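TA notes, week 10

Several of you asked for a full example with nothing omitted. So below is the full record: structure tokens for the whole chain, then the designed sequence directly under it. When grading your own attempts, check the secondary structure regions first.
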């Protein structure tokens, strides 16, 4: 394969500079370039899976069975040692991540976080065509390796190998042709990122870039060369100098293909310098370099660090068993392109798919580094393996011990320095407390919040409460302000929440001129409803058998999942050993009413505490290990109390919530049921769910800073200021 022309390298560097400059200059106008970047990513994936199939079958098929057995025994041992070193480093890098307390709004993907992975379908290609069509990279890799192993034993295989060689060349040339589009794709991706990304997003990405570069430097300058010189006669300076041309080429081009012949020549040169070159070393180098190239040695596996980072980014660190799953699945997925592997692994670990955008942005920097490390790993592995197979390996135990101690001490010093730097120099990003406080209602009807229920109910003069509301133009709503984000008080005393917003919408559709909110207790729902103190209860009201005997419920409008709120430190212990939850020493608190009844039935042997207010748990007045509540509600409470986290058990209990009205009020019930159907059909419930539960578009961001908008024409900002939304005055508690 020919080297890329220098002009392409120049264009790639220019695309980086122009992309960043364009994004900073035009700002959010560059958002339209996103489609170009997505098209570029799709184009670059065209030849990935076909090349995996062809190259693996060809590489294994060229070996003779006797030769393959000898190579496999020692090669497998060496590659396992190399993989273990890389995986150990990846496992150590999270120790450098800043210890930030960060809580997020509810993400429905959390409910699938404990789904098991079908490893049979993942690794066994029962239907290779289905695996190819669905980008199941591990199964495709296993299929290709098996075909290559069978091809070794077929006597008349030269014609097939020649055909595979031709197809491989076609796919390689196709890749080179598509790479020529890189300047356009890189420009679009960087312009979109620079124009739309906000500083807080870049701040968290800096953690990944710093740890990735540190890991690459440790492998390239410390671990790989010292291990190589420990088992051979080659010196550190000699190894680095001989390989510098090939490594620099890979670093600048981000392409490992083009230096494979150069790596073979460098290996021959090293052996010749020590008068160890012969036909055996030359032939072994020619065989092992291409085979090692097929394997993900070190650099390609570094991309698995992004999954570890994504878990930390999502405030959900991986457990020991999940690390094993990551390394097992990651090995086979990294046989292909990381652009295919990372989305697959994000989906496998139930991490937000939009984090892949951060990976693409960071890959502009990390891709060249990882390929340089991969090239040096192929170079070091091939030298060490060739020396072992030809009898040129020499072990000096004292020198080996000194270098191993050096590797350990330097690695510890570097990681400690990185940890201190990230914790000291990077400021913790702002949490979502401000977003929670920024939530507000778009009041269209005047309302008043009362401190207590009326002393006695109103005399019902109409046939139904529906007719009474239509006549009086007043909607009386029972609420409980202890169910954030469905109903809660902000610091300024304003009553807000999902159900409070729904109550305003209901009053508007009923053509009311006033809403009255009365506090109710979940233990006493029947009296205020049946005695006509309130018309309806709207406050995350669970449907239970006991309540069905006393009041009437509408159709459920949301289905919630029960979860536990636990201190941050305890969450990791529970994930490692879920049996803790059923220990007779594990105390769980729950709100009196439906939650406490549900807890009693689900975990009858656990010590239980009945709460009258959630703050009793968060303020420490009640000593309990966990608090039972819905996951949607628990996410909001962890935002208000960042020292706590949400834990969703593997077995999920569903909670149907609806609105409660008085018994035997058929007319009002019929109206409410059809009203909920209409609101669900036109998307009103979904929009309010995204705002109050998922925290989307609560604080509309100002336009991204840009040179054109903020420097060249700042007067336009003054002439057209953003008008704040009007807030109606209302009587509050």
């Amino acid at each position: 394969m020919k080297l890329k022309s220098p002009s392409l390298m120049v264009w790639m560097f220019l695309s980086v500079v122009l992309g960043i400059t364009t994004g900073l200059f035009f700002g959010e106008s560059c958002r339209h370039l996103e489609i170009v970047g997505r098209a570029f990513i799709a184009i670059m994936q065209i030849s990935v899976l076909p090349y995996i199939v062809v190259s693996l079958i060809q590489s294994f098929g060229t070996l003779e069975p006797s030769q393959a057995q000898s190579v496999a025994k020692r090669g497998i041992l060496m590659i396992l040692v190399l993989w273990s070193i890389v995986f150990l480093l990846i496992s150590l890098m999270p120790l450098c991540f800043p210890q930030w307390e960060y809580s997020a709004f509810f993400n429905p993907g959390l409910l699938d976080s404990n789904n098991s992975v079908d490893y049979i379908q993942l690794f066994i290609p029962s239907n290779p065509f289905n695996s190819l069509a669905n980008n199941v990279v591990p199964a495709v890799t296993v299929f290709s390796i098996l075909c290559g192993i069978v091809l070794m034993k077929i006597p008349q295989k030269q014609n097939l190998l020649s055909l595979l060689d031709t197809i491989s060349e076609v796919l390689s040339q196709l890749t080179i042709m598509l790479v020529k589009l890189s300047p356009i794709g890189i420009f679009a991706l960087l312009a979109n990122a620079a124009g739309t990304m906000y500083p807080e997003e870049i701040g968290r990405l800096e953690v990944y870039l710093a740890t990735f570069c540190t890991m690459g430097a440790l492998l390239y300058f410390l671990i790989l060369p010292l291990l190589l010189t420990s088992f051979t006669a080659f010196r550190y300076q000699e190894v680095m100098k001989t390989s510098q041309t090939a490594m620099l080429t890979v670093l600048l081009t981000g392409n490992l293909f083009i230096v494979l012949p150069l790596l073979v020549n460098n290996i021959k040169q090293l052996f010749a310098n020590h008068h160890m070159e012969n036909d055996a070393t030359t032939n072994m180098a020619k065989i092992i370099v291409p085979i090692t190239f097929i394997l993900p040695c070190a650099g390609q596996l570094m991309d698995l660090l992004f999954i570890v980072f994504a878990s930390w980014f999502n405030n959900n660190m991986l457990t020991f068993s999940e690390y094993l799953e990551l390394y097992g699945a990651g090995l086979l997925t990294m046989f292909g392109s990381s652009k295919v592997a990372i989305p697959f692994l994000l989906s496998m670990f139930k991490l937000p798919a939009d984090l892949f955008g951060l990976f693409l942005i960071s890959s502009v920097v990390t891709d060249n580094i990882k390929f340089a490390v991969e090239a040096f790993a192929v170079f070091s592995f091939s030298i060490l393996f060739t020396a072992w197979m030809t009898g040129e390996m020499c072990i000096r135990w004292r020198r080996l011990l000194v270098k191993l101690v050096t590797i350990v001490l330097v690695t510890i010093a570097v990681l400690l320095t990185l940890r201190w730097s990230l914790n000291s120099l990077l400021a913790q990003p702002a949490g979502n407390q401000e977003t929670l406080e920024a939530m507000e209602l778009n009041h269209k009807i005047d309302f008043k919040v009362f401190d207590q229920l009326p002393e006695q109910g109103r005399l019902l003069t109409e046939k139904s409460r529906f007719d009474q509301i239509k006549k009086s133009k007043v909607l009386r709503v029972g609420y409980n302000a202890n169910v954030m984000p469905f109903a809660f008080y902000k610091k300024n005393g304003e009553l807000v929440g999902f159900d409070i917003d729904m109550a305003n919408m209901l009053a508007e559709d009923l053509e009311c001129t006033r809403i009255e909110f009365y506090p109710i207790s979940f233990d006493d729902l029947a009296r205020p409803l049946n005695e006509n103190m309130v018309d309806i209860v709207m406050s995350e009201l669970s449907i239970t058998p006991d309540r069905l005997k006393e009041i009437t419920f509408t159709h459920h409008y949301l289905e919630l999942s029960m979860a536990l709120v636990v201190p941050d430190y305890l969450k990791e212990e529970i994930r490692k050993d879920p049996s803790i939850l059923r220990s007779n020493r594990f105390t769980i608190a729950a709100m009196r009413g439906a939650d406490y009844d549900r807890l009693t039935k689900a975990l009858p042997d656990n010590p239980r505490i009945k709460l009258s207010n959630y703050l009793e748990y968060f303020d420490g007045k009640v000593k309990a290990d966990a608090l039972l509540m819905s996951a949607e509600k628990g996410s909001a409470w962890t935002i208000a109390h960042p020292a706590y986290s949400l834990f969703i058990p593997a077995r999920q209990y569903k909670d149907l919530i609806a609105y409660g009205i008085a018994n035997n009020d058929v007319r009002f019930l019929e109206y409410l049921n059809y009203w909920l159907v209409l609101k669900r059909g036109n998307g009103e419930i979904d929009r309010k769910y995204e705002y109050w539960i998922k925290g989307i578009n609560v604080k509309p961001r100002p336009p991204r800073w840009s040179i054109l908008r903020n420097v060249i024409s700042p007067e336009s900002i003054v002439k057209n200021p953003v008008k704040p939304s009007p807030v109606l005055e209302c009587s509050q508690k």
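The two ends are 76 Å apart (CA to CA). Use that as a sanity check on your answer.
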